[in-house]
UniProtKB/TrEMBL annotation:
Residues 145-286 form the Aspartate/ornithine carbamoyltransferase Asp/Orn-binding domain. It comes from Salirhabdus euzebyi. InterPro entries: Asp/Orn_carbamoyltranf_P-bd (IPR006132), Asp/Orn_carbamoylTrfase (IPR006130), Asp/Orn_carbamoylTrfase_sf (IPR036901), Asp_carbamoyltransf (IPR002082), Asp_carbamoyltransf_Asp/Orn-bd (IPR006131). This is Aspartate carbamoyltransferase. SUPFAM superfamilies: Aspartate/ornithine carbamoyltransferase. It is an enzyme of class 2 (transferase). Its EC number is 2.1.3.2.
């Protein structure tokens, strides 16, 4: 496969190969691509994903084409397709896209010949975040088999939840959700538990950001009410198992999903996730841009 659009496209071998390459990079292996150019087309705000792709490209010797929807011909009505076709014509070797539309990439696949990396599509998927989360979990436990993972929060609007739940179950983890009724996604085949049950039983608590920008109206809950019922409070953190860890894709709504002082508590791996993100994205860019490079995909 020459694109990374959905985590569902990767075989177990494909996932393992990215995690192994990323770990070798973290352990000191150097990689260099050189003479390649990547275009970053971010139509939604980002700090981590965009900057870690920039850092990954920098470390691999890849040049970057900058883009901002506010100062580009998007302002004149240029379509996503025409923008991607343009960066391809200009000479980009790969395009990394974040876009608010679910599965935006369906309109590109037929006529775009350079690799496309999905850096987040609406409420759809976030495959590179998923891969860095998988690496963080694997570093801790050395396996995914029977690891109890609870993904907690705004499940309905979360692309992180969808990619991670699918991949973790495929890799043998025991995946459950925890969410207020209004943000449950009952189309997905996972059981729900309360936050109190979650913290007592899980090995990995993956908190999600409350995605206010994707909510139609004002929330019926205050931040304090959300934290008390569905967030990680000091009391809940104390109830977690000794070796269980805490993840959050960030950005974090401090005092909503989590009490602020817990963001850097001993069991938090939140900033480790970000560090892992650079190595994972280096591994992905390296695999896609090598001569004849491709990712291992599920058999159709
Ligand atoms: N986790 C994540 O996707 O963060 P950004 O929105 O800052 O890229």
């Amino acid at each position: 496969m020459e694109n990374l659009l959905s985590i569902k496209d990767l075989s177990v071998k494909g996932i393992e190969q990215i995690l192994e390459d990323a770990q070798r990079i973290l352990d000191g292996e150097t990689k260099s691509i050189g003479q390649k150019t990547a275009a970053l087309l971010f139509y939604e705000a980002s700090t981590r994903t965009k900057m870690s792709f920039e850092m990954a490209a920098h470390r691999l010797g890849i040049s970057l084409l900058g883009f901002s929807p506010e100062t580009s011909s998007v302002q004149k009505g240029e379509s996503l397709y025409d923008t991607v076709k343009t960066v391809e014509a200009i000479g980009a070797d790969i395009v990394i896209i974040r876009h608010p539309e679910d599965a935006y990439y369906n309109q590109l696949q037929q006529n775009i010949t350079i690799p496309i990396v999905n850096a987040g599509d609406g409420k759809g998927e976030h495959p590179t975040q998923c891969l860095l989360d998988l690496l963080t979990i694997y570093q801790e436990f050395g396996t995914f088999q029977n690891i109890k993972v609870v993904i907690a929060g705004d499940i309905l609007h979360s692309r992180v939840a969808k990619s991670n739940a699918f991949a973790l179950r495929k890799l043998g983890a025991d995946v459950m959700f925890s969410a207020p009724s209004v943000w449950k996604d009952l189309s997905l085949p996972y059981d729900y538990v309360s936050m109190d049950e979650a913290v007592e039983n899980c090995d990995v608590l993956m908190l999600l950001r409350v995605q206010n920008e994707r909510h139609a109206g004002a929330s019926s809950m205050t931040n304090e009410e959300y934290l008390a019922a569905y967030g990680l409070t000091t009391a809940r953190e104390k109830a977690m198992k000794k070796n269980s860890i805490l993840l959050h894709p960030a950005p974090i709504n401090r005092g909503v999903e989590i009490e602020s002082h817990l963001v850097e508590c001993d069991r938090s791996r939140i900033f480790k996730q970000m560090n892992n993100g650079v190595a994972v994205r280096m591994a992905i860019l390296n695999q896609l841009l090598q001569k004849g490079g491709h990712l291992h995909v599920v058999a159709n």
